[in-house]
Amino acid sequence: MVSIKNMLPNFKDMNLNPITLGFQDKLETEFINIQYKKTIFQVRISFFLAVFLYGFFGLLDIQLVSEVKNLMWLIRFSVIVPIGLLVLVASYAKDFEKYRDATMSLTMILFSIGILLMTIVSPKPVDFIYYASLIVTFVFVYTFVGIRFVYATLTGVIILLCYEFTAYFILNSPAEIIAKNNFIFLSTNFVGMLAAYSIEFYSRRDFFITRILESNQDEMIKLNSDLEERIKVKTAELVKTNQGLIKEIKVREEVENELLTANVKLNNLLNDTVGGLVSAIELRDPYTAGHQRRVTQLAMAIAQKLNLPKDKLDCIRIAAMIHDIGKINVPAEILSKPGKINQFELELLQNHPQAGYDILKAIEFPWPIAETVLQHHERMDGSGYPNGLKEDEILIQAKVIHVADVVEAMSSDRPYRPAMGTEIALNELNENRGILYNDEIVDTCLKLFIEDNFKFEEKNKEKWVLSK
If I label 425, which of 203, 226, 251, 373 is the partner at 20 to 30 A Cα–Cα? Predict the structure, then answer.
């Protein structure tokens, strides 16, 4: 059986530089122009949000550093926010697309420098709290503001260097704090680089496949037009000559042979087009972000109710937020398929814990994040996947996320079925407690919904603050 992955165009097929992700031919200019027009509205909205949040966080200055509030606001509202608004206005200029990446990168660097300046002027130990804003900046750099992977990576590196300079030479921060912050910042940058690289690669691959399809379509239209013209000519000749039945039959046979040949060519082109459409399958899940956020809410509520130690709470929080990251390797049409999936599709889907593990294992987390993601579909009786682990072979973190995942999945709409409801989800847990799911975790989850009236929140209200 031919693998779908092997049918997709690779770097060599697309003449794409694997490092800079640039087409090494005339397609590069065309892609940049088209991508700019497709994303400029989203980029403006995202950049406006970045500027708004930068200003909105000024409310924290009142509570945290009231003694230097005026100086902090001078940095925020007299320098950084006006610069951001100026860039936003400039994005409507005719030639902005030529300078978008460089301008956005420079602006995000200025945002980060502003954060570092506020860190410098704020009193200890409050100054360390402002470092958390750099993580938000990294998220915007790598995902929302729409700059290319190369520019995003360079921007992230420059921001890191600015932090290092500030921490070492200006603030004389303790080595322990710098080490902890470096771990968080380097991990955020690594994951951000993967995200930025994937987003740009899939955008370029979609563009390349679209060009192939358009080329095939143009060829089909041209062939069909030529065929129609030749049929008209032959028909006119037939009417004009009309020299008897034999000649008419001969002419008809010639036309029929040409039609047969043309139909063969059309069929071949159709096959190529179908192959191109198959290659256009996206490896993304449209509802993963919301699903993971809700699973995190319930998993954290269960873990806190179980009085798990802090290191396991931290592990569950991070692992739950990215437990389905491996679905980037699953074709989108399988994830959004409304009907029943076949065995081959099921095997692809069930590979996502292993794919997530392969992505995360290179990151040196202080918790078993990769192992937790790998095990989040394992069951107590060994009927889970990918490794069929049983009972104590499964991490407690994975057991908690598994229960939360089941409840959220059954309570929410899916492409292949409407939401089944929380009551049915809780019945599933109760019926299979001790068989598929851990007894204590199931009991805790049931109490959350029945006694504590647990509800999924629309937005995640948790705030991430760097530990000291």
Answer: 373
Which among 188, 195, 180, 179 has a CA at the least distance from the CA of 159?
Answer: 188
Mean pLDDT of all residues in 210-235: 77
Distances (CA, A) of 380 to 176, 312, 357, 399, 460: 40, 19, 20, 9, 30
Exposed (0-12), middle (13-18) or buried (19+): which is 54, by Cβ within 10 Å?
Answer: buried
Which CATH number applies to 288-450?
1.10.3210.10
The pLDDT value recorded for residue 263 is 52
Q: What is the pLDDT of residues 118-127, one digit of tens each?
A: 888 877 765 6
pTM of the model: 0.46
42 to 45, 54, 109, 330, 365: CA distances (angstroms): 5, 18, 20, 25, 33
Entry field: residues in the chain = 468
Average pLDDT, the chain: 81
Task: Identify which has the larger pLDDT, 72 or 267.
Answer: 72
pLDDT digits (tens, 9 = 90+) for 90-125: 889 888 888 888 998 998 899 889 888 888 887 776
Pair 97, 36: CB distance under 8 Å? yes
Closest CA to 170 of 133, 134, 124: 124
Q: pLDDT value at position 305?
A: 93
Distance separating alpha carbons of residues 296 and 274, to the nearest angstrom: 40
- Pairwise CA distance, residues 228 & 33, whole Å: 36
